[in-house]
Amino acid sequence: IATLSAVALPVEIVLFWLVSQLPSQVRHAVVMAFWSCWLSLHRALPRAWVQTGLADEMSLEAHAMGNAIFWVRLLPVTIRRMRFSLGNLDSCCPPSKGLHTEVIDLPARGVHGVYLHLTPEENEEPRRVLFWVFGGAYVAGSVAGTTGFAEQY
């Protein structure tokens, strides 16, 4: 599998670049379309075939997720794959279209983050602003990839 992974590397680099150029709303729509099809397949198949989780009492969605993730463990986890995956979490939870962001970049102080203006300016209620910094544990992830999650809180 490691040899196959190395052979696929040039294609992976181009594919990752192409996917990263798509807006998060588009990636979200594609992910949700695939998920809808995958879940429909699980609903159509006999439960004995799709209930592969730890317990039969788990929801069909949990079984479907487990069946999807099962195959990922066969791929070697490289830094590139980890950074790509964690940097694209906004595919599952994209920021809203009206979210106003203000980038904060102070490299001399080691600060890189973004102000998330959660309340529209025309709204008369007190404005909510969140200073969002996501370090990614010095390995993977980004402020841009997790802005949708931060906006929900």
Helix and strand arrangement:
Blueprint: H1 2-7, H2 9-21, H3 24-44, H4 47-50, H5 60-70, H6 79-87, E1 100-106, E2 111-117, E3 129-132, H7 143-152
Antiparallel strand pairs: 1-2, 2-3
Structure description:
- The protein has a 3-stranded antiparallel sheet, covered by helices on one side.
- It has 7 helices and 3 strands.
- The protein is mainly alpha-helical.
- The termini are far apart.
- Helix 3 (24-44) packs across helix 5 (60-70).
Please sum up the structure shown.
This protein has about 150 residues and is mainly α. The protein contains 7 helices and 3 strands, in the order ααααααβββα.
Count up the helices.
7
Distance between the termini: 40 Å
Please indicate the percent range of residues in DSSP E strands (runs of 2 or more). 5-15%
In the predicted model, the low-confidence regions spanning at least 5 consecutive residues are none
| Overall 3D shape | globular
Radius of gyration: 19 Å
Give, in spatial order, the strands making up the sheet with the most strands. Answer: 1-2-3
The percent of residues in helical segments reads 40-55%
Count of DSSP E strands? 3
The helix/strand class is mainly alpha
The major β-sheet equals: 3 strands, antiparallel
Mean pLDDT: 86
Provide the succession of SSEs: HHHHHHEEEH
Supply database-style keywords:
mainly alpha, 7 helices, single chain, 12% strand, globular, 153 residues, three-stranded antiparallel beta sheet
